[in-house]
């Protein structure tokens, strides 16, 4: 593959390879018995694979024109908020860890919601309007905030929040509470940081003062 083609399609190949490693490798089986492994899957999908896919769509010119308007960023952020917090509600989370159909639905919804948010946020870079770029930054920063909050709740909880913590067998060297704390830390470090970095990058573009050409 030539260098221009590699630069153009490399992110897409990397994203698909990452999804294959996440979903076909040992992590889904480990996620049945380890909250931390489940969180690795979650963060790999929404904070790594989804932005890579969104970036590759932008490089290939496949983003819809509506993605540049910024109007769908906040609805996409709201959808991701509802899905992330909903799937981490104890009853639904335990069910997804024990039933393959719900697990597949959870993972698919994570990918689609993450891709929706990242494509609308990154698509705002193609807009000449400051408001569209500001909306993209706001969507990513808001997502970073609520992911950080959820990660902190998981990390600081005094007891396991999920029934699967006692029914399932976590990583052999960890107690159910320690397994949950590790998962919360992963959400803080990977999820919160990825969306924060994306939001700051977009915000920097909004705040950058354009150069004014000197007139003779």
TrEMBL record:
Matches recorded under InterPro entries: Caa3_assmbl_CtaG-rel
Record's subcellular location: Cell membrane
Domain of life: Bacteria
Pfam families linked: Caa3_CtaG (PF09678)
Membrane-spanning parts: 41-58, 70-88, 100-122, 134-157, 186-207
Record's keyword terms, sorted: Cell membrane, Membrane, Transmembrane, Transmembrane helix
Topology of the protein relative to the lipid bilayer: Multi-pass membrane protein
GO cellular component, one term: plasma membrane
Name this protein carries in UniProt: Cytochrome C oxidase
Species name: Aureimonas ureilytica
């Amino acid at each position: 593959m030539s260098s221009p083609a590699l630069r153009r399609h490399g992110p897409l190949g990397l994203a698909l390879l990452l999804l294959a490693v996440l979903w076909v490798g040992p992590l889904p089986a480990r996620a049945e018995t380890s909250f931390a492994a489940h969180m690795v899957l979650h963060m790999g999908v929404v904070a790594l694979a989804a932005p890579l896919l969104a970036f590759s769509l932008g490089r290939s010119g496949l983003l819809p024109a509506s993605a540049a308007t910024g109007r769908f960023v906040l609805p996409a952020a709201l959808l991701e908020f509802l899905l992330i917090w909903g799937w981490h509600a104890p009853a639904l989370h335990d069910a997804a860890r024990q039933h393959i159909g719900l697990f597949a639905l959870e993972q698919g919804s994570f990918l689609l919601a993450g891709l929706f948010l990242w494509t609308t946020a990154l698509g705002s870079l193609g807009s000449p309007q400051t408001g569209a770029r500001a909306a993209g930054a706001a969507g990513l920063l808001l997502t970073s905030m609520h992911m950080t909050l959820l990660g902190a709740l998981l990390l600081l909880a005094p007891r396991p929040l999920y029934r699967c913590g006692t029914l399932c067998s976590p990583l052999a060297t960890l107690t159910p509470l320690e397994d949950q704390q590790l998962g919360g830390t992963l959400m803080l470090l990977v999820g919160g940081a990825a969306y924060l970095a994306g939001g700051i990058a977009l915000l920097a573009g909004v705040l950058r003062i354009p150069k004014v050409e000197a007139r003779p």
